[in-house]
Amino acid sequence: MTEISQPYGAERQRVFISYSQADRQRVTGLATLLEALEHDVFIDYRSIRSGTRWEEKLEEALQATDVLLVFWTRHAQQIALGASGV
Prior knowledge:
Layout: E1 14-18, H1 24-36, E2 40-42, H2 44-47, H3 54-64, E3 67-70, H4 74-84
Parallel strand pairs: 1-2, 1-3
């Protein structure tokens, strides 16, 4: 198996991925690629253990992140619009 390394001068980043559960399959590939490039990736289903106070874990991860990736898709929009009552 070929080892992937970061480009010269690239720094390890803490990446938080925000997405709709309906898009989980799409973002999982990106998370895997970022991890292969040696970044620290926070993605809920991999980063939060069952029984953990997830609200606190999300807040901690957001406070510590270098990069926030928000996947704004049709699914995410439907959830947001439903939540706001629009």
